[in-house]
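Now read the record:
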Amino acid sequence: MAKSLLIVESPTKAKTLGRYLGKQFIVKASVGHIKDLPKNKLGIDVEHDFHPDYQVIRGKKKVIHDLSEAAKNAEAIYLGPDPDREGEAIAWHIADEVRVENKPVYRVLFYELTRGAIQKALENPLALNRSLYEAQQTRRILDRLVGYLISPILWQKVKRGLSAGRVQSVALRLLCERENEIRSFESQEYWTIEGRMVPGTAPGEAVEGQEKPRSFSAQLARCEKKKCRIPDVEEANRLLEALRPLSYTVQKVEKKKRTKSPPPPFITSTLQQEAARKFHSSARRTMSIAQKLYEGVEMGDEGAVGLITYMRTDSTRLSQEAVQAARALIEEVHGKDYLPAKPAVYKAKGRAQDAHEAVRPTDVRRTPEQAARFLSKEEARLYALIWKRFVASQMAPALYAQTTVDIVGGDYEFRAVGSVLEFDGYQVLYTESHDNGEGSDKDDAWLPELKEGQPVLLEELIPKQHFTQPPPRFTEASLIRELEELGIGRPSTYATIVSTILDREYCRVENRRLLPTELGWLINNLLLKNFPEMVDVEFTARMAKSLDQE
């Protein structure tokens, strides 16, 4: 009985699929793209509707021959490259080159490499998606036109070998504009005044032998009924003289509960950002490791297993089965208090295609501890990050008790804010990082129990000099976030955008921050002067939006 032929792009993916499919299928790999625009010429007929001249990539003729031979003996051909634009282009090019008459050709989309998902995809094959392919082709043509028509000008004006990219040039412009902001920034001096205070007692309330109360901190907030602004040391000294002799009383105590909800499961950009913050991993490295986890890792007796869902996605959507599995695990391991009454549902952003699920483990029961012994250190920590973020996204919020105290003396008002974590919720498992530190979920300053009308004793006044700071330089993580918010690039391109401008030496990394090089400045200024529309942020975002509407 003839077998069906399944063609994917990766040998690792082919191996994983072959283990699940057994004798029903022959599984072959194209090893990436088999056709592309020629390297030594434009390859686009600008006089005839910009028709592209795709050619077989050097070294791929043997691959095509092997695929064609396998197709001759197959009863049907299934094309299973990655479920995105690049994968669709690979599928179309395979269909063009591996021509077998009177045999059905199907497109199959594998969002996770598990037995159930693979079977479902094969039982529900699709037709090739022309709109998706043409969207990829349009991007490729635009990138080629930009590169081939502008790069020679860079060779003439700067030096040979340089190149300009449609989206990378906008990213370079963002770096240069941020650096200009930093260089032109004029720092302004300002002061704050902190009061160290201790709770006082009303007459007759003092208890002999009682220990001295613990002091707490409050910030000067209002001066003579207005928001306090202290521009220099002279004004700070004037205020210190006015504040020292005053008597202080608690005017208002406000207590409220504050919840902090878990972050959504990862999409491509947030995975790259969080890996950069926690592990200092480049976007390119993160995606390379994620690709391995998706395509399959040898797990002992299990064989090759896909550990995560497809990692190029802009959707926070989760399957009902995955959510229910996570909820069952949460209740079993952490208890009912950590399980919200209803599953958390996260809304996708405006530009999200929502074609794929969020990045999550394929089997939540495969814990990071269980997987770690089969993984490299980098693979294990990325898998643990994805696993914890997914499970945490379905856990109960953290609960804080927050107290705000206003303390008045004469025409001046101090404010003290304190919060205590009452229930850790999802934070028992996961804490999100931020660009300026390892997280913002720490408790605020300690506060004693205070009552309205209670006297407060001023123990010490601490003036502090500050200077306004320029905007920070971009990290890889914050540049990707900026590109995403501006609507530039797609999940499949973020890592390439950043790595390209680094590889071309248009920018460099210093203390994990991206700085334009002298060459980068030169290229950016040249493009701004001669091709302003090409590096225009809004134009590029509009172009991306129109290309998304396949």
About this structure: The chain has four domains: 4-128, 136-184+472-548, 189-261+398-467, 268-393.
